[in-house]
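Subject: Interface between my chains keeps coming out wrong

I've been trying for a while to get a sensible model of this assembly. When I model each chain on its own everything looks fine, but I need the whole thing in one frame so I can look at the contacts. Pasting all components below, labels as-is. Any help appreciated, I'm running out of ideas.
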Amino acid sequence: MRKQERAARTRQGLIRAAAQAFAQRGYVQARLTDISASAGVSPGALHFHFENKAALAAAVEAEASAALRGVVRDVYHGRQLALQTLTDATHALAELLREDVVARSGFQLGCQRALGTELSLRQEWQGCVQHLLALAASEGTLAEGVAQQDMVTTIVGATIGFEVLGRDNPEWLSRQTITGFWRAMQPRLAAPGVLGRLDPEGRQQTEPSVC
Amino acid sequence: MRKQERAARTRQGLIRAAAQAFAQRGYVQARLTDISASAGVSPGALHFHFENKAALAAAVEAEASAALRGVVRDVYHGRQLALQTLTDATHALAELLREDVVARSGFQLGCQRALGTELSLRQEWQGCVQHLLALAASEGTLAEGVAQQDMVTTIVGATIGFEVLGRDNPEWLSRQTITGFWRAMQPRLAAPGVLGRLDPEGRQQTEPSVC
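Reply #2:
Try treating it as a single job with all components included. I did that and got this:
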């Protein structure tokens, strides 16, 4: 393995170990010595890559942010209705939070550290929900009389609630929970005739969706 | 002031000071010396009332739980529709979280400390939502085809989301946010003819409601 490649692997290992420590013990209580030990490197190697705990947390957040953008980008492929994309994005976010400790920790860090000036992951998610609802409105697939801002409030509130409740009980991030949420919301959101074209279970993204 | 009364006041002051410290610094970082100083009593007086930080946290949670039960009980008065009571209960919970640091801290503690065996405040709230939706179903005021469990998921998820998002930005717990949420949800929940009898802004509880 080349030196550069090895350094990149060490850095990735440290980010993952830090995310695990932050998720388990919280940012304040997580200890750098535990993080380096868990990544299988010396404290010196940790400090070569990251100046301090704040730098590690920033790296976890940056990676979580990239992961969030990745799953949202993935559900955009195919030419489907914006409301279906929103449904799929929520499923993808929940799956990411279930499966990926770096994403989970990145979302949690936003509320554990002092607020920075950068966009938090929650705000990024809110921007995504806003964008997709505006897209649905411009498609003409949003039911009449639905106030977009009310729906952004409801969808962002609920998904952030699932994220937080899912820390103690992963059931809140299950496919079943997210499907139930969209069974509740889609009939309120969709214009007449559109509901039958929406699937609250989300479309699998393994093959291109056909609409 | 009688001795007993003075002791009760000191205890209350300590609970409030602890709630403020937990909400500001988190349970782990809150320090007993700061709590006693902020309550204007000696560390010895604190230890007379509370054995340790865990005992203080338990007292904060117990008081928050009593406050939650109080606001829910208050909105039950009057003979109104269960869906209106649920709307009013959500407004009352948001107001409690906005105004009362003990309630706010009590909700936060549930996720900061190791999980105990006692019912958390979030679970109490979930029980309340479940009960009111079942009541609406038995009244016949729930729209056909609405799965109660999906609605419990959505309403609990959203309100817990508002609680968490409201820590950084109180706008998420404002009357405007909660009203927007119910404007989004009531048309989906209410049976035909019932919607016109519901007010998403919540009914003021200063005088008995007339239905």
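Reply #3:
Confirming on my end. The longest helix of chain B spans residues 53-76.
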